[in-house]
Amino acid sequence: HVQPILDQSEVYSGCYARVSLNFYAFNTNGNKGVACGLGNIQKIKDGPRLGGRTTANDDFVSEDADDDFLS
Questions:
Q1: pTM above 0.90, yes or no
Q2: In-domain check, residue 14
Q3: The pLDDT of residue 33 is above 80
């Protein structure tokens, strides 16, 4: 099912996808190398987010929220 991705949050580090890449060599002002350009993305399925990001809810809400941590 080829459908456009309209919401940018649908593509994230950790989702499974097929991508088209364009590799090219460059030689600019004495800088030489190989670079890669990202073309199209076809999302296959969701996966766990990479990078260790958590939500504020996960970090700060606990079952003992009424406890005073200073006492």
A1: no
A2: yes
A3: yes
